[in-house]
Every structure is written in structure tokens, then in C-alpha cells.
Amino acid sequence: WVYDEAAGLPEECIAPGTLWKDVPMNWTCPECGARKEDFEMMAI
Questions:
Q1: Rounded CA separation 25/13 (Å)
Q2: Which whole number is the average pLDDT over 16-33?
Q3: For 6, what's the count of Cα atoms within 13 Å in the CB-facing half-sphere?
Q4: Domains and CATH numbers, the chain
């Protein structure tokens, strides 16, 4: 799963333009339930 900062996650109250570093620490992946801390930053 890839977080798109430009799109955000409006369905989870994360506005478009929200940087990954500003996503709440208690956020979990909508697909698998992984915690934010389990994700790795990757350039694409």
C-alpha cells in the first residue's frame, strides 16, 4: 500500500496535502491494519 500525500485519506480524516510525517502515530493501514511505524519511506 502506498500513501499519496497529495491525495491524503479523506475517508480517514487525513486531508489532501498531509505529509506522511504529519499522519497521526495511531493511524493503521486501511488494507492490512499495519501500524504507521511499520511502514518504510520509499522514493517512487
A1: 14
A2: 95
A3: 0
A4: 1-44 (2.20.28.10)
| Percentage of the chain lying above the pLDDT 70 cut | 100
Pairwise CA distance, residues 27 & 20, whole Å: 11
- pLDDT recorded at residue 43: 79
Helix extents (H) in the chain: none
CA pair distance 43, 10, nearest whole angstrom: 23
Rounded CA gap, 39 and 13, in Å? 19
Q: Which amino acid is at 24?
A: P
pLDDT beyond 90 at 42: no
Is-above-0.70 flag for pTM? yes
* Rounded Cα distance, 5 and 17, in Å: 5
